[in-house]
Design brief:
This protein is an alpha/beta fold. The structure holds S-adenosylmethionine.
């Protein structure tokens, strides 16, 4: 991971093209049903785009990638609205994003995810303790995880292991 200073904010960037192992492992759950290739994917905090690229390689045709930096994705700040219509996204990725967001940004993103998620939407979240993040240790990351789960308590927990989980919005 590389740390960059951007507009007065310390941001951790993740290089490399290998997708998140958790995402790769869970791909069979995403590629089910008729016409799964047309599912609309949103990759929030996409970084250099490794997970977006992976899903495109898998066959997903509609992948929107957003990040503070616009070198791979479209520029988006967590305090902004997500540029997507209500109930329009079927899969939302939030891999290693939430640890970098302040409380106000988190609440905004949670609301926006709920707004743009279609019925049956799958949300994949990964968090981890990173020294340069706002949740640098295990205790804080555990609290963050609980905060996410509480915010999406009406969603079904499809899978959970430590700081990685999949939630599903009811149809
Ligand atoms: C550790 S990287 C993870 C990137 C990608 N999800 C992955 O798994 O490779 C965290 C990403 O969150 C983005 N980020 C951090 N704070 C942000 C903010 N306030 N708004 C939008 N993106 C932000 C950073 O630019 C960075 O690309």
């Amino acid at each position: 991971m590389a740390i960059k200073n951007h507009e007065g904010k310390k941001v951790v960037r993740r290089g490399g093209n290998n997708p998140s192992p958790y995402l790769r492992k869970k791909t069979p759950l995403l590629t089910t049903g008729i016409d799964w290739e047309s599912k609309k994917v949103l990759d929030l905090g996409c970084g250099a785009g490794r997970n977006s690229k992976f899903l495109k390689t898998m066959g997903f045709k509609d992948v929107t990638s957003l990040d503070f930096f616009d070198d791979y994705g479209q520029r988006w700040l967590a305090s902004d609205a997500i540029p997507a219509a209500d109930s329009s996204k079927d899969i939302i990725l939030c891999n290693y994003l939430f640890m970098f967001l302040a409380d106000g940004e988190l609440e905004k993103v949670f609301k926006e995810i709920s707004r743009v998620a279609a019925g049956g939407c799958i949300l994949i979240v990964e968090v981890m303790p990173i020294k340069t993040s706002l949740t640098p240790d295990d205790v804080k990351v555990a609290e963050l995880k609980e905060k996410v789960l509480k915010s999406f308590e009406s969603w079904h927990i499809g899978h959970i292991v430590k700081y990685r989980f999949m939630l599903e919005k009811s149809s």
